[in-house]
C-alpha cells in the first residue's frame, strides 16, 4: 500500500471505531440517512463547534458530515487545516487548542480531552512510561531481557534489587532522563537511532528543529527511553555498591557485553554500550560511531581490560 492508501485505511478504521462509540443512539422516528458517511468524511474535533464547552474554538472548524454534508471534509483529502489525530485516542485534534500537547520526541499530538493521563504529552519529569507501572511489568517484559542480551542472571539480580529498594520503573526512567540531559549530545543519539519513529498509529507533526529542546514526552516515548537506558542505568546503579556481597564478588568476564555467554555466572555488566560513544561532543554523528568502542567510565569499581581486548570481541 502506498502511504496515502495506508493513511486512508487507517482513517477509515478510525472513523468506523469513532462513529460506533461517539454517535448518539439512532432516533427510530427519523433515521439519519448519512450515518455511514462518517467513514468518508472527517468528524469534527471537540473544539470545532463554536459553542463547545472547552472555551476555545477552531478557527477553521470541520463541518459535521451528519448535519452539513455539503461542507464536510473528505478523509481522502488528508487532514483538515489546523487538525491532527491524537496519538492515544486517535480522534481529530485541534493543533492550536490550549488542551492539545505535542510530544517533542515522536512529534505526535495529544488531545488532552478523551482519556485523562493518556491523551497527553507531559513535561519529561512527570511522565510515566507506558506499560511499565511496577517491577512486575518489567518481569513480564521480553524487551527488558533483550536490553540485557538475554542475560537472565543479571536481569534477576536487578529485579531483586529494584524490589528490595522499592525502585519503580518511573524512577529509573527519570534518572535516565536526568543522565541524558547531562550529556553533551542530550537526546540526540536516541533521536538519530529513530527510537521514536512509528510508535503510534497516527501520522506525526514535524520536528521544528533537530536541535530544539525536548520538553514534553508521551507515554510510549518514555518507555522507549526507559528500555534504551535501562542497561546503562543498571551499570551506574551497581557502582553505588548497594548490591549483596555475593553479587559484588562475582568475577568480571573480560569480554563484557561482547561475550557470547551472557548467561554464565560471571559479571558481564562491566562495559557500557557502544552507543554511549555518540554522546562524546567532538564525535561526528556518523554510523561508524555506533560501532566504535565505548568510552569507559572513570569511576567504575572493577579494573577494566584494555580497550584493545574489548575490540577483539566486537
Ligand atoms: Zn476542530
Ligand atoms: Zn486523545
Ligand atoms: Zn512521543
Ligand atoms: Zn563472559
TrEMBL record:
It holds the Pfam family zf-CRD. Residues 27-36 have a biased composition (Polar residues). Residues 1-36, 269-289 are annotated as: Disordered. It comes from the Eukaryota. Signal peptide: none annotated. Residues 1-15 have a biased composition (Basic and acidic residues). Residues 83-225 form the E3 ubiquitin-protein ligase CHFR cysteine rich domain. Transmembrane segments: none annotated. This is E3 ubiquitin-protein ligase CHFR cysteine rich domain-containing protein. It comes from Pleurotus ostreatus (Oyster mushroom).
Amino acid at each position: 500500500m502506498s502511504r496515502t492508501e495506508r493513511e486512508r485505511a487507517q482513517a477509515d478504521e478510525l472513523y468506523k471505531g469513532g462513529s460506533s462509540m461517539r454517535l448518539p443512539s439512532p432516533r427510530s422516528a427519523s433515521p439519519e440517512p448519512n450515518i455511514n458517511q462518517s467513514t468518508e468524511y472527517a468528524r469534527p474535533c471537540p473544539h470545532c463547534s463554536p459553542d463547545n464547552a472547552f472555551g476555545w474554538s477552531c478557527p477553521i472548524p470541520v463541518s459535521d458530515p451528519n448535519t452539513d454534508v455539503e461542507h464536510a471534509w473528505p478523509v481522502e483529502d488528508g487532514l483538515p487545516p489546523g487538525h491532527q489525530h491524537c496519538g492515544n485516542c486517535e480522534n481529530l485534534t485541534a493543533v492550536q487548542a490550549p488542551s492539545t500537547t505535542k510530544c517533542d520526541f515522536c512529534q505526535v499530538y495529544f488531545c488532552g480531552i478523551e482519556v485523562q493521563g493518556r491523551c497527553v504529552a507531559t513535561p519529561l519529569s512527570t511522565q510515566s512510561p507506558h506499560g511499565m507501572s511496577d517491577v512486575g511489568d518489567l518481569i513480564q517484559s521480553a524487551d527488558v531481557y533483550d536490553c540485557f542480551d538475554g542475560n537472565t542472571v543479571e536481569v534477576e539480580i536487578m529485579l531483586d534489587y529494584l524490589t528490595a529498594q522499592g525502585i519503580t520503573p518511573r524512577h529509573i526512567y527519570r534518572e535516565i532522563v536526568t543522565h541524558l540531559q547531562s550529556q553533551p549530545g542530550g537526546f540526540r543519539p536516541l533521536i538519530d537511532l529513530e527510537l521514536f519513529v512509528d510508535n503510534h498509529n497516527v501520522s506525526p507533526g514535524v520536528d521544528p528543529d533537530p536541535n530544539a529542546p525536548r520538553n514534553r514526552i508521551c507515554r510510549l516515548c518514555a518507555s522507549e527511553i526507559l528500555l534504551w537506558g535501562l542497561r546503562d542505568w543498571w551499570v551506574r546503579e551497581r557502582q553505588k555498591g548497594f548490591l549483596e556481597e555475593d553479587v559484588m564478588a562475582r568475577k568480571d568476564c573480560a569480554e563484557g557485553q561482547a561475550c557470547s555467554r551472557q548467561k554464565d555466572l560471571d559479571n558481564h555488566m562491566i562495559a557500557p554500550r557502544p552507543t554511549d560513544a555518540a554522546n562524546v561532543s567532538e564525535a561526528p554523528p556518523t554510523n561508524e560511531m555506533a560501532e566504535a568502542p565505548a568510552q569507559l567510565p572513570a569511576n567504575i569499581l572493577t579494573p577494566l581490560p584494555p580497550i584493545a581486548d574489548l575490540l577483539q570481541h566486537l
